[in-house]
């Protein structure tokens, strides 16, 4: 008499579960790598935005161009006279006051002060950011450096001395340099 078996044996079920678990672990790891890559890309986009923001501010206030040069860490300028244009408020600022206000707002932006967590720490902006501005005649170089998620190599390797001197050397340092000319 022949016995006919229907269904799965316990060994087959266990093998299937092991294969499923290995596949799920791979998917979860892929998800983590994608999130890190997405954050790195976001930081790069933010750095580009901040570099172009200060360049546009320098173009508007080009009579103060040479005075924008320096190294900024997010708290270099402690306060400044507000020079924004508000509806119904006429604030008259000199070019120097406008420069200080530009740098004040810019530093607060890349330090992330506009976004706070529930414990009141900055969560916006770039991680451990340092910005450097060099001005030679009408040639302007803006360098943004920040701390990346993964350790790779220093983002300033092979760059000019000015770019390498911006921020702290690290295998997680990322850098973005923008060169332009501002004609007065």
UniProtKB/TrEMBL annotation:
The UniProt entry, under InterPro entries, shows: N_methyl_site, Pilus_4_PilV
Q: Where is the chain membrane-spanning?
A: 13-34
Keywords for the protein's UniProt record, in alphabetical order: Membrane, Transmembrane, Transmembrane helix
What is the top-level taxon of the source organism? Bacteria
- Any Pfam family from its record, for instance, is N_methyl
- NCBIfam families cross-referenced by the UniProt entry: IV_pilin_GFxxxE, type_IV_pilV
Q: Specify the protein name.
A: Type IV pilus modification protein PilV
């Amino acid at each position: 008499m022949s016995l006919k078996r229907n269904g799965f044996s316990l060994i087959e079920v266990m093998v299937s579960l092991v294969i499923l678990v290995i596949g799920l672990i791979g998917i979860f790891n892929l998800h983590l790598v994608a999130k890190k890559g997405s954050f790195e890309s976001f930081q790069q986009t933010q750095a580009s935005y901040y570099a172009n923001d200060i360049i546009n501010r320098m173009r508007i206030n080009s009579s103060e161009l040479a005075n924008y040069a320096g190294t900024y860490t997010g708290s270099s300028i402690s306060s400044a006279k507000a020079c924004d244009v508000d509806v119904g408020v006429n604030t008259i600022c000199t070019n120097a006051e406008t420069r200080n206000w530009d740098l004040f707002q810019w530093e607060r932006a890349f330090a992330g002060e506009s976004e706070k967590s529930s414990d009141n720490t900055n969560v916006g902006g770039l991680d451990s950011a340092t910005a450097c501005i060099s001005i030679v005649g009408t040639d302007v170089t803006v360098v943004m450096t920040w701390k990346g998620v993964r350790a790779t190599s220093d983002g300033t390797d092979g760059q000019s001395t000015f770019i390498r001197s911006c921020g702290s050397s690290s295998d997680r340092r990322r850098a973005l340099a923008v060169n332009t000319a501002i004609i007065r």
